[in-house]
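Today's session is about reading a structure prediction critically. Students often jump straight to the picture, but the first step is always the sequence itself: look for stretches that repeat, for charged clusters, for runs of hydrophobic residues. Only then move on to the predicted structure, which in these notes is written as discrete structure tokens rather than atom positions. Here is the chain we will use throughout the hour.
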Amino acid sequence: MYTTYFLRFATQEEAEQKLTEVGYSSTDPETDQIHFHTPPHTGALDIIGTIYNNDGVYDEESGEVVTPPTAMEGYHVNLILKEKIPTSLKTYIVYPNLPYRVFA
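Below is the predicted structure for this chain, in token form.
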């Protein structure tokens, strides 16, 4: 059985550091690009990043932004696992009333 976790970090850098510390990243040796993922056959990781509130104001005729939406606090990552979540990630779990994005 899989469990979904909604995680909120203070910054992208903190998220990447913590995900790397628990083994949820690898570096492509050819490009040095870092990829974030769970270990094979254990679950999935969904990097959401910044989530914006639904408070933007738009011109009704042109659709142009009058006032941009404000950002919610933190850097967001969804995690679904069939194993227990690493202890060091537990402090980042949040419980949104209406999640921005969920696993299907």
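Discussion point for the tutorial: The chain has one domain: 3-94.
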